[in-house]
Each structure stands twice: as C-alpha cells, then as structure tokens.
Amino acid sequence: VGLALGYNGGDISWTDDVSVNGTKYDLDMDNNNVYLNAEIRPWGASTNPWAQGLYIAAGAAYLDNDYDLAKRIGNGDTLSIDGKNYQQAVPGQEGGVRGKMS
After folding, report:
1. Which of 4, 39, 79, 97 is placed for a possible disulfide with 86 were both Cys, Cβ 3.0 to 4.6 Å?
2. Based on the structure, what is the number of domains in the chain?
3. 58-75 per-residue burial string, b: 16 or more CB within 10 A, e: under 16
4. How far apart are CA 47 and CA 41, in angstroms?
5. Which Gene3D superfamilies does this UniProt record tie to the protein (predicted)?
6. pLDDT tens digits for the chain (102 residues)?
7. Which structural domain, as residue segments, surrounds residue 58?
C-alpha cells in the first residue's frame, strides 16, 4: 500500500495575457487544492513486470479555486464581447467588465 498526500496552491496574476476572441483580459487565480491518494498493489512484491504495473488507486481531494477575469477600457476604447462592440457610456471615466468563478 502506498499513500500520497499533497498540496497545490498559490496566487497567479496575469495582465493582458489571456486573449478570448481577440480581447485581452487580466486574470487573477487563487488556487488551494489538497489531496490524499492510496495505491494498492494486489500482487504485492511480485517480480513479474506485468503484475508490478497493475494497481488500484483511490483518493479524495479538497478543491478551492477562485478565478477573477477583468477588462478595463478608457476614453475611445472599444470592448468586444461575442461579436458586439461596447463603448463607455460616460466620457472621461473608466469602464469595463468583470467575471468571477469560485
């Protein structure tokens, strides 16, 4: 029997690096993943390479990931979403769109 306990996490922030249909977005990712995995080898310490390659694995994980996607536009800029163009409603101010996924 083999056990594996692991963690994968951290914050990643990209500016103007994610492009969707020609529009560049800012992306912030907050990852927090913990997992436990058990491997069972039914044939134990067999010398047969085929028996060594066969095993049963079972595990559980806790996933807590947050993603934030944003696009900001200034004066004269156009935001294109799904083939439709949008401009600021109030000149002289900043506008944009933001999406979150948890």
Report:
1. 79
2. 1
3. eeeeeeeeeebbebebee
4. 13
5. 2.40.160.170
6. 889 999 999 998 888 778 887 788 899 999 999 999 999 988 887 888 888 888 899 999 999 999 999 988 888 788 888 888 888 777 778 888 898 988
7. 2-101
Task: Report the distance separating Cα 14 and Cα 41, nearest Å.
Answer: 43
Name the residue among 62, 73, 77, 2 with its Cα closest to residue 32: 62
β-strand partners of 100: 68
**Helix, strand, coil in percent for the chain, rounding step 5:** 5, 65, 30
Q: Are 39 and 55 in contact (CB under 8 A)?
A: yes
Q: Which of 34, 30, 33, 32 is nearest to 12 (CA)?
A: 30
